[in-house]
C-alpha cells in the first residue's frame, strides 16, 4: 500500500467541499448550526448516506506545515518548533537556517520565515540513513504539498453527537470535534486580527493542533487494533493458502 501527501486545495475543488466556519455545535433551539461541525445542511441528517461520506474544510487563515512534514522537520532540527513559536530567531546563510540574535538586522522568526524562504533552504546530509530518507522525501515534494492553509473535516458519522453520554443534559463534543473547534477558533483569531500583529503563540498553537489531529488519525489506523488491520482480518482472499509451521518431536 502506497501512502502519499495530497493537495488539499485540489481535493476541495474537485469535490466542491463546503466550508465550516462556526465553533458553535448547536443553535439556541438545540439544532446543529447551519455552518457548524454537525450541520444538517452540509452533512445531512443522522442515518443518511451523506452524513457518512460528506467531508468539509476549514480555512486556517495562513500557511502552515503539513503535519507529517512538520514532524519530519522537527525530528531533523528541534529549533523549528521554537522558531514557529517566535522564541528563536534565525536567518538564511548559504541555504542553511542559522540561529542568530534577535538584534541581528536579518533576524526572522515564525512560520512565515519558512514559507517565504522554503525554496532557498538546503538540508545537510549528516550521514544518518533516517535523515537521508527524510531529505529525499522533502526534496521530492512541491511547496504546495509542504504547506497548507486549509484542513479537511471528517464526516460527522464518525464523531456524531451522543446525548447519552451527558448526565447534565449538556452535549459535549467528542475528542476529534473538540480539536476541530479549537482550530476554527484559533484561525478566527488570525483572520479577525489580520490588520495588527497578535504574536506567534496562536500560529504555534495551530501548527501543534494540526499535528495533534494528524496523530489522532494515525492512532486509529496503526497496529493490530487499527482500522486497516481490523478490516483486513475479516476479508476472505481468493486463491490463497495459509502455511502453519509446527515443531514435531
Outline of the structure:
By secondary structure, the protein is of the alpha+beta class. It has eleven helices and four strands; from the N terminus they run H-H-H-E-H-H-E-E-H-H-H-E-H-H-H.
How would you portray this structure in words?
With 249 residues, the chain is α+β, with helices and mostly antiparallel strands. The protein has one domain. The chain is 40% helix and 11% strand. The chain has helices at residues 8-15, 40-43, 50-53, 67-76, 79-84, 111-117, 129-139, 143-146, 175-192, 201-221, 227-233, and strands spanning 56-65, 89-93, 96-100, 147-153. The strands form two sheets. A two-stranded antiparallel ribbon has the order 1-4. A two-stranded antiparallel ribbon has the order 2-3. α4 (67-76) crosses α10 and α9 packs antiparallel against α10 (201-221). The chain is flat and about 60 Å long. The model has no long low-confidence stretch (mean pLDDT 86).
Task: Give the tags.
single chain, 249 residues, alpha+beta, two-stranded antiparallel sheet, 40% helix, 11% strand
Q: Identify the strand order in the major beta sheet.
A: 1-4
Q: Based on helices, strands and strand pairing, what is the structural class? A: alpha+beta
Radius of gyration: 22 Å
Largest sheet: 2 strands, antiparallel
- Number of domain modules: 1
Query: What's the helical proportion of residues?
Result: 40-55%
- Molecular shape: flat
Regions with little confidence, pLDDT below 50 for 5+ residues: none
Give the mean pLDDT: 86
Question: First CA to last CA: what distance?
Answer: 40 Å
Number of strands: 4
Beta-strand portion reads 5-15%
Task: List the total number of helices.
Answer: 11
H-E string: HHHEHHEEHHHEHHH
